[in-house]
Specification:
The structure holds 2 protein chains of 2 kinds. Chain A is of the alpha/beta class. Chain A has helices at 96-108, 123-134, 162-175, 191-200, 239-250, 266-274, 284-288, 292-306, and strands at 24-26, 29-31, 35-37, 59-65, 78-81, 84-87, 113-118, 139-145, 149-150, 156-157, 180-183, 205-208, 212-215, 217-218, 223-224, 230-234, 257-260, 279-282. Chain A has one domain: Aldolase class I (TIM Barrel, Alpha-Beta Barrel), CATH 3.20.20. In chain A, the strands form 5 sheets. Chain A has an 8-stranded parallel β-barrel, surrounded by 7 helices. Chain A has a 4-stranded antiparallel sheet with strand order 5-6-16-13, with no helix packed on it. In chain A, strands 1-2 form a two-stranded antiparallel ribbon. In chain A, helix 2 runs parallel beside helix 3 (162-175) and helix 3 (162-175) packs parallel to helix 4 (191-200). Chain B has helices at residues 28-33, 78-84, 123-130, 150-154, 175-185, 198-210; strands at residues 4-17, 20-26, 39-42, 56-59, 62-63, 68-74, 91-98, 110-115, 135-141, 160-164, 171-172, 191-195, 215-218, 234-236, 243-245, 252-254. Helices cover 19% and strands 32% of the residues of chain B. In chain B, the strands form 3 sheets. In chain B, strands 4-3-7-1-2-6-5 form a 7-stranded antiparallel sheet. The A-B interface holds A 40-43, 47-48, 50-51, 71-80, 82-83, 85, 87, 89, 92, 221, 223, 227, 235-236, 264-265, 284, 286-291 and B 2-3, 5, 43, 48, 50-55, 93, 95, 221-225, 227-236, 240-243, 248, 262, 264.
Chain lengths: 319, 264
């Protein structure tokens, strides 16, 4: 195929440059473009109505849903740090029943792929929620937050124990026919080990990174800034770490990798796609400017046109 | 309710007192749909700077029919300091109008109780109420310099009282002293609207309870998004272990919804 640098040049023998193909595949799921809204930063979708055209993004990942409603952590839940945001929201959510009844109907009318993030404190809880989502009209895939404490194992996060992470993956895969994306925590010694385990347990894709555990102290009140003491760090501060981990995981597993971590601009997203990510999630940046995902998508498309790159996969750097 | 995220041109940035500023921007879409008690999220960063990166929530202080809105704010940290350096002609991104404002009640005397810069969300309701019924305004501060815009309020009603802790203006003491005096004179039903420091609002609420007078409070909280995406701005509810969210269900609440005993 001939790529024309300048599509305005017309000659009967020359093909006009095709606009780039932005669509990508995650397992059996085809997304119209690689820019997704990250769980926990796009609410249940309705909150962004009028501020971001949800129809244009590649997918929307609904905030983590548990089997019963969760009230979340006491305040303060947020503190801003240099180029970052520490949060300890405590996975506040309406629970699976209310999600299906009150939130899902509105989301069905949005013309994008709907992915639901799920969380649990036991393998059984993950499995139960996945089963309930399996038959839910409109839900296209499940993203699994494995950064939650495993109550039966004394509260160690599933995602920090490769075996426990694989167990959750197997249970969710068994409970649903939907594509399953496992969201990895960076709070481990070797993220590729967990990635390999969940891949061999049947994960259709992995997304990374979840937030980095951190803390801040208010020196005026002489107390930890968050009521929960520790929180998850997100935002531009974590991007280099996220990019390094995505690079490593892309080279460790054969399943698609979705990049997350401080992506605020098209350039940030392109770095992740060049590292080999199949798609990216926009998180904290949406909190600051709701229209970010649209701007990132437009920037990626523009870059591909300018550089005559036809497919998202072609952005990946050669080995 | 429609929300707008618009690049707004600054038309005025005035330092009224030490650390206190009045910022006026052109934002016709927001001005047109704003209700008393609502707020906006303002981008404080320059260009593509990522520190600080979060917007700052500011109550809408004034609106003008020419499409301008004003914010009365205090420099409390890096974000508001950067905002105070912005000059007329520059563009600041403003997202709004946000949240649930005051539910105005017109069939009874209304008492506005403001502490310090907590007066910021109270001017719009004061102007509305003044058109229809009896309006009592009570304002308190540590010192007269903390409340440089009181004339905006004092011109609205002859039932205007002020208290400062150092006696630099009005009665020496607390705004709650003024409220106690006012409540003694109230015989029938009334409505309280208040905004200020947490201990002040708590005291106002307890005084309102004793007289069976409904009270609406405007709360503040650290926010990331201002539109209910992150659920960061939680405040404990009075009747359960659940939380209210200042940006979405608030910033104005019926005071009895809030767990006033909560301290971090």
């Amino acid at each position: 195929m001939i790529h024309q640098k300048n599509p305005i040049t017309k000659s009967p023998n020359h093909q006009i440059t095709k606009s780039p193909n932005l669509s990508i595949k995650i397992g059996s799921l085809v997304l119209k473009n690689p820019v997704l809204l990250a769980s926990g930063t796009c609410g249940y979708g309705t909150e962004l109505d009028g501020l971001l055209d949800l129809d244009q993004v590649g997918g929307i990942i609904i905030k983590g849903i548990s089997s019963s409603p969760r009230p979340g952590n006491p305040p303060p839940r947020l503190v801003e740090t240099p180029c970052g945001l520490l949060n300890s929201i405590g996975l506040e959510n309406v629970g699976i029943e209310s999600f299906l009844k009150d939130k899902l109907p509105w989301l069905r009318d949005v013309k994008t792929s709907l992915i639901v993030n799920i969380l649990g404190n036991s393998v059984e809880e993950y499995s139960e929620i996945a089963k309930k989502l399996d038959g839910a009209k409109g839900v296209k895939a499940i993203e699994v937050n494995i950064s939650c404490p495993n109550v039966k194992a004394g509260g160690i996060a599933f995602g920090t124990d490769p075996e426990a992470a694989a167990n959750v993956t197997r249970a969710v895969k068994k409970a649903t026919g939907l594509p399953v994306i496992i969201k990895l925590t960076p709070n481990v010694t070797d993220i590729t080990e967990v990635a390999r385990k969940v891949a061999s347990a049947g994960a259709d894709a992995v997304s990374l990174i979840n937030t980095l555990l951190g803390m801040a102290i208010d020196i005026k009140s002489r107390r930890p800034a968050l009521a929960n003491v520790f929180g998850g760090l997100s935002g531009p501060a974590i991007k280099p770490i996220a990019l390094r981990m995505v690079w490593q995981v892309v080279r460790a597993v054969d399943i698609p990798v979705i990049g997350i971590g401080g992506i605020s601009t098209p350039d940030d997203a392109l770095e992740f796609l060049m590292a080999g990510a199949r798609a990216v999630e926009i998180g904290t940046a949406t909190l600051i400017r709701p229209s970010t995902a649209g701007d990132v998508l437009a920037g990626i498309k523009n870059y591909m046109e300018t550089n005559s790159i036809q497919n998202i996969e072609d952005l990946r750097l050669p080995e | 309710m429609p929300k707008f995220d618009i690049p707004a041109k600054i038309v005025e940035q005035t330092q009224l007192a030490h650390g206190i500023f009045l910022l006026t921007v052109e934002a016709p879409a927001i001005q047109n749909s704003a209700n008393p008690g609502q707020f906006c999220m303002l981008e404080v960063k320059y260009n593509n700077s990522r520190d600080p990166m979060l917007r700052r929530p500011l109550s809408i202080y004034k609106t003008r029919t020419n499409g301008q809105i004003s914010f009365l704010y205090k420099e409390v940290g890096k974000g508001t300091r950067l905002l105070s350096k912005r000059r007329p002609g520059e563009i600041v991104r403003v997202l709004g109008p946000l949240g649930q404002g005051f539910r105005l009640i017109h069939d009874r005397p209304c008492i506005l109780v403001g502490g310090g810069l907590g007066i910021a969300p109270l001017l719009l309701p004061a102007e509305r109420i003044n058109q229809s019924g009896k309006l009592i305004i009570l304002i308190g501060a540590g010192n007269v310099s903390e409340i440089p815009t009181i004339e905006d309020f004092s011109r609205l009603t002859r039932h205007f009282h002020i208290a400062t802790e150092d006696g630099s203006l009005g009665q020496r003491g607390m705004v709650t002293d003024l409220l106690a005096q006012t409540l003694q004179e109230i015989t029938g039903m009334a409505q309280i609207y208040t905004c200020g420091p947490w201990p002040m609002m708590k005291a106002v609420y307890h005084m309102a309870c004793k007289k069976n007078i409904p009270c609406q409070v405007s709360l503040e909280a650290t926010m990331a998004c201002g539109i209910g995406l992150c659920l960061g701005c939680a405040v404990p509810k009075s009747d359960s272990r659940e939380f209210l969210h200042v940006c979405k269900e608030g910033p104005v609440f019926d005071a009895d919804q809030v767990n006033w005993e909560y301290t971090q």
